[in-house]
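Why should sequence recovery work at all? Because a backbone constrains its sequence more than one might expect. Tight turns favour small or flexible residues, buried strands favour hydrophobic ones, and helices have their own preferences. The token representation captures these environments compactly. In the example below, the structure is given first.
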């Protein structure tokens, strides 16, 4: 049975698909514009906004890990998902009703980062709800395509919306509607705790034991390697606007178009990837994806003034699909019966990626320029991919 057919037939997977559609619309509404709103509209200084981003990163990691462990301990995943979506809705309502510095700090520094734990919870549910014998990688890749699709659609919507002089603060309305939809969807359709068709085995681990498991060298090494691979995606988002701004033939609209094209190509590539994961090892797909993706990263500073730059979103879409979709199932197999904690590993991976990308940017701009940053990012990703192939060298191919 194809992944999309299975998603259509099973209510739990259908719920996740719809939730990821709403989550993609929510993220595309808020995150591309948060720095503009914080600095230009609300009046935060750049150093203060940087502190908000640090607070957001700490909060996201802490919430994802604690809630992931808690879900594996007690199995109350529906309540955790409702808590996450409610946090998002409250934060966005604060920005709609009381826009200001305190609301922005609470919304973007605390409440939205808490809500980001929903992503891991959705894929924990997907792991549990996918029948035995069905490729979980293919199902999760197909589910992830929903988020890319709605992200692209919302990005296009706001591109035209801002061209029609809609105020940028209106993004909180679209994000708020998406969050409200998520609350209703999870409340009405998420399987009630203990009433599902599958067994949600309790981990039996307290918090100290769960943290010790995460810190085990087998898991920690793979977390660092996957973080190095994903750092290339962080650097892409940092470099694209800076490189295009420096180009005499590019402007902000080109940035939106490029990012939108990358997101657009991810959708068919994710669906194609779902057919490969049952035949090729994840670590091999991740290594190949990294090698392809770094071509796009290297090309940004080199081809920015050329028409050939518009070929690169296809390259990024092909390479990036493995990087964005495979780590979750990789962690789930690594941690077996603890899908909530495995989902929280994505937040830890992002923290590693952010730190490596920040170091690459600081070193690259100090000793060279954006080309040097791209080269360092490429080296990090390729080293991470080679390391992952090495530690997984004895892993059997999918059957």
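From this structural description, the recovered sequence reads:
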């Amino acid at each position: 049975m194809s992944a999309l057919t299975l998603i259509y037939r099973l209510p739990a997977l259908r719920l996740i698909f719809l939730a990821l559609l709403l989550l993609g619309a929510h993220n595309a509404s808020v995150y591309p514009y948060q720095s503009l709103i914080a600095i230009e509209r609300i009046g935060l200084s750049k150093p203060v906004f940087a502190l908000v981003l640090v607070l957001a990163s700490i909060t996201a990691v802490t919430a994802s890990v604690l809630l992931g462990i808690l879900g594996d301990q007690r199995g109350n995943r529906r309540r955790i998902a409702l808590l996450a979506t409610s946090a998002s809705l409250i934060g966005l309502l604060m920005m709609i009703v009381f826009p200001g510095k305190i609301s922005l700090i609470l919304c973007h520094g605390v409440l939205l980062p808490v809500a980001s734990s929903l992503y891991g919870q959705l894929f924990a549910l997907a792991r549990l709800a996918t029948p035995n014998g069905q490729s979980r990688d293919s199902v999760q890749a197909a589910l992830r395509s929903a988020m890319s699709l709605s992200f692209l659609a919302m990005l296009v919507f706001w591109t035209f919306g801002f061209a029609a002089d809609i105020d940028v603060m209106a993004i909180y309305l679209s994000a708020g509607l998406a969050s409200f939809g998520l609350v209703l969807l999870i409340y009405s359709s998420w399987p009630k705790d203990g009433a599902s068709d599958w067994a949600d085995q309790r981990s039996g681990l307290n918090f100290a034991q769960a943290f010790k498991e995460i810190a085990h060298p087998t898991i920690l090494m793979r977390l660092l390697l996957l973080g190095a691979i994903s750092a290339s995606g962080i650097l892409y988002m940092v470099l694209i606007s800076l490189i295009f701004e420096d180009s005499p033939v590019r402007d902000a609209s080109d940035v939106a178009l490029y990012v939108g094209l990358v997101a657009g190509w991810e959708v068919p590539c994710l669906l194609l990837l779902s057919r490969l994961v049952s035949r090729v090892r994840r670590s091999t797909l991740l290594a190949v994806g990294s090698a392809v993706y770094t071509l796009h990263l290297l090309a940004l500073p080199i081809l920015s003034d050329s028409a050939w730059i518009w070929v690169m979103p296809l390259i990024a879409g092909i390479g990036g699909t493995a990087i964005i979709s495979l780590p979750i199932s990789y962690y789930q197999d690594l941690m077996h019966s603890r899908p909530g904690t495995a989902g929280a590993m994505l937040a830890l991976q992002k923290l590693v990626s952010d730190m490596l990308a920040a170091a690459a940017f600081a070193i690259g701009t100090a000793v060279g320029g954006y080309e040097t940053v791209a080269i360092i990012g490429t080296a990090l990703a390729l080293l991470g991919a080679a390391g992952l192939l090495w530690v997984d060298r004895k892993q059997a191919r999918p059957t």
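A few observations help interpret the result. The chain is about 80% helix and 0% strand.
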